[in-house]
Design brief:
The complex is a heterodimer of chains A (114) and B (220). Chain A is built from 3 helices and 6 strands; from the N terminus they run H-E-H-E-E-E-H-E-E. Chain A has 114 residues and is an alpha+beta fold. In chain A, the strands form 2 sheets. A 3-stranded mixed beta sheet of chain A has the order 2-1-6. A 3-stranded antiparallel beta sheet of chain A has the order 4-3-5. In chain A, helix 1 packs across helix 2. Chain A is elongated and about 55 Å long. The two termini of chain A are 31 Å apart. Chain B is α/β, with parallel strands linked by helices. Helix content of chain B is 41%, strand content 22%. Chain B has a 7-stranded parallel beta sheet with strand order 4-3-5-2-6-7-8, sandwiched between helices. Chain B is globular. Classes of the chains: A alpha+beta (114), B alpha/beta (220). At the A-B interface, helix 1 and strand 6 of A face strand 1 of B.
Chain lengths: 114, 220
């Protein structure tokens, strides 16, 4: 249940922003989750539905999860490739001298408040 | 009622990363070296720490923080077997420690240490995601877990400077290829130091002790 820990973390940050901005309620939350961030979107949504009922501002909050594609970069042939298909090995030149550019994010993008 | 959008655009880990960086700097200023010890449950974190501390405690002032979801068995074990000050932290159901919890543990432990071991919750996913503010991260992989662990849990193996392969006294009983395991670890992190050990029998503990002595004596 690693998603629950992240959900609790997100909720406490959003509740803090809600408090600081003196809003009545948070109606929607948009999150960006990378394909290789280790967050399973369905589990994250389940945890969120459970946890939001226990909050002050987010009991009616809709969650929108945007999944970001994972892309890696090869230092040897200087090209990009899809991480989930080829993992650490570059499909162009077979080098493993590669690193992830994007795809491990877990971001709070925005909230809609009233 | 009018709906307003508040743009946050921040990583979930941003606040924790900031407080971890702050803690790391404070520790460096005080001359305290904090080691975050991670592994799956049962890999031998506590017994490895006991073996290491017993070799290091004559030269350094050592403290231990044990993090678990519940109970104080680890803190009691370490205190009994090493005589070192130890505190037990409870994560209240959470599967990892964050920088703020680490700070609370350090406050409880008090001052006057050269080296502090933080035994994180046994888990290969969450502890790797949350920076504790430690000076270095190490992980222990044990023989019964299999030599392919580094392929299944990329993050933890890519962020640890030191990887111990424990329970090599049991190599005989398992289908575990030590060379393949080392290759898999280096695939995730080409600069990792790998030391095979047996915490129970004492193999390799001397090499780990030397590893820490080298770091600690440089700092002085």
């Amino acid at each position: 249940m690693h998603e629950l820990g992240i959900v609790m973390n997100v909720i406490s940050q959003v509740e803090k922003v809600a408090e600081e901005n003196k809003v009545n309620a948070v109606k929607a939350l948009t999150m960006e989750v990378g394909e290789v961030s280790s967050v399973v979107p369905d589990l994250f949504k389940d945890c969120f539905e459970w946890a939001k009922k226990r909050t002050k501002y987010m009991t009616d909050c809709e969650l929108d999860l945007v999944v970001l594609e994972a892309i890696s970069y090869c230092r040897d042939c200087k090209s990009n490739y899809k991480t989930t298909t080829y993992a650490k090995e570059c499909p162009h030149c077979k080098s493993v001298n590669t690193y992830l550019i994007t795809g491990n994010e877990i971001n709070i993008h925005d909230i809609k408040v009233i | 009622m009018e709906v307003k959008t508040i743009l946050l655009k921040k990583s979930v880990f941003e606040d924790n990363d900031l407080s971890a960086a702050k803690l790391r700097k404070e520790l460096a200023d005080k001359g305290v070296f904090l080691v975050n010890v991670m592994s799956s449950p049962g890999a031998g974190k506590t017994s490895t720490l006991v073996a290491l501390i017993n070799e290091l405690s004559s030269s350094y002032r050592i403290g231990v923080m044990e993090a678990d979801i519940d109970s104080d068995v680890d803190a009691v074990t370490v205190a009994k077997k090493t005589g070192c000050p130890s505190v037990q932290l409870h994560t209240d159901g959470m599967c990892h420690l964050d920088a703020e919890m680490t700070r609370q543990g350090l406050n409880e432990l008090g001052d006057g240490f050269d080296l502090i071991f933080l035994e994180n919750v046994g888990n290969l996913v969450c502890p790797a995601e949350y920076d504790t503010g430690a000076s270095m991260d190490m992980t222990i992989l044990s023989v019964p877990e299999g030599d392919d662990k580094p392929l299944k849990y990329p993050l933890i193996y890519s962020k640890c400077d030191l990887v111990l392969i424990n329970k090599i006294d049991a190599l005989h009983y398992f289908d575990f290829d030590l060379e393949k395991c080392e290759k898999n670890i280096l695939y995730r992190n080409p600069s990792a130091t790998i030391i095979p050990i047996s915490a129970r029998r004492g193999d390799g503990i001397g090499a780990v002790v030397q590893y820490f002595k080298k770091i600690l004596d440089q700092g002085e």
